[in-house]
């Protein structure tokens, strides 16, 4: 993982979130670490940082970057990160059950009419007949870990098609990409900025859309330690307010496209500092634009989707049957949708 810090970054102001106002700012130079992946789907945090929305709340933010969801959940529980955005995983739920973590809002969502996560086949598997999700039976489906969002998606997709797949845990997204390119695994599902980039380069084939199998899927959530949720309310509300302003800017520029062409270009340039930063802008731009899925307004959380994910974890024996949505979610911070 890598760290990146910039204090007091300022820029254009975006739409104001409707979370409770506590003053301007409510805090003063409160240092915190925010966990993230180098994905377009984490753009709300990057925008809040670069445009000074965290600074407006008195938050001095440092990013800590991860390559999978489970290690991020562990970092929140251990205090190595204060807030983070990632998918619900079995590890996160178990940490919540132990009183170490709480989901406080929603982030990335599948939404009808917006191009979302893709189902991929390796070239070798495609040539052997894996041209649609209906042909997944007996195939190797890549996941980071058991109980990850990839595991959930693959299980829901294969169940809907009435077939059985073999899940292959590879720990990191980078390792999965390598395995897909070499044909060591047959299938995977991933956010569009990665899926379309790989397919456009001829490395994989797109064979379906996740939203066709899991409509209105709450892909990622905002979460923190149980201690922060319970005892650091001002700080937590300040974080969510800044995060929500970043989401508003992102959605207006790249999802709803109401902010104009220049705002869209500016947004892509901002995100490029964090996503595909090792590529020239001209090569990264299309992939970043392709990754523009909805980030929920005001960190709203789709509780029906959260419940479906918890029910799946229970059906797989990955979490205790006694765990409820209240175990995982502190619903006092953000609206439910």
UniProtKB/TrEMBL annotation:
Annotated Gene Ontology cellular component terms: periplasmic space
Entry's localization field: Periplasm
GO biological process: alkanesulfonate transmembrane transport
Protein family per UniProt: Belongs to the bacterial solute-binding protein SsuA/TauA family.
Domain (SsuA/THI5-like): residue spans on this chain: 40-249
Assigned keywords, A-Z: Signal
This protein's record includes keyword Protease: no
Main localization of the protein described in the UniProt heading: periplasm
Protein name: SsuA/THI5-like domain-containing protein
Pfam families referenced in this protein's UniProt entry, alphabetically: NMT1
């Amino acid at each position: 993982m890598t760290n990146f810090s910039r204090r007091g970054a300022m820029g254009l102001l975006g739409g104001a979130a409707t979370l409770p106002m506590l003053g301007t700012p409510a805090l003063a130079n409160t240092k915190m670490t925010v966990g993230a992946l180098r994905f377009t789907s984490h753009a709300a945090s990057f925008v809040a940082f670069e445009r000074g929305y965290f600074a407006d709340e008195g938050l001095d933010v440092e990013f800590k970057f991860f390559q999978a969801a489970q290690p991020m959940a562990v970092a929140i529980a251990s205090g190595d990160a204060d807030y983070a955005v990632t998918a619900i995983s079995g590890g996160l739920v178990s940490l919540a059950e132990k009183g170490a973590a709480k989901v406080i809002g929603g982030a990335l969502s599948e939404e009808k009419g917006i191009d979302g996560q893709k189902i991929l086949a390796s070239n070798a598997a495609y040539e052997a007949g894996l041209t649609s999700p209906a042909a997944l039976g007996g195939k190797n489906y890549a996941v980071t870990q058991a109980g990850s969002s990839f595991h959930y998606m693959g299980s829901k997709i294969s169940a809907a098609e009435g077939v059985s797949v073999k899940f292959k845990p590879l720990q990191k997204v980078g390792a999965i990409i390598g395995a897909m390119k070499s044909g060591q695994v047959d299938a995977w599902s991933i956010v569009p900025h990665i899926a379309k980039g790989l397919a456009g380069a001829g490395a994989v084939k797109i064979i379906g859309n996740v939203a066709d199998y899991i409509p209105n899927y709450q892909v990622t959530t905002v979460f923190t330690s149980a201690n922060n949720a319970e005892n650091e309310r001002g700080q937590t509300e300040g974080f969510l307010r800044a995060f929500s302003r970043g989401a508003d800017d992102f959605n207006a520029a790249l999802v709803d496209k109401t902010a104009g062409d220049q705002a869209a270009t500016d947004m892509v340039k901002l995100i490029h500092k964090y996503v595909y930063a090792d590529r020239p802008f001209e090569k990264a731009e299309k992939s970043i634009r392709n990754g523009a899925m909805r980030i929920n307004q005001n960190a709203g959380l789709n509780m029906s989707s959260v419940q479906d994910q918890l029910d799946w974890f229970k059906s797989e024996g990955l979490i205790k049957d006694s765990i409820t949505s209240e175990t995982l979610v502190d619903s006092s911070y953000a609206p439910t949708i």
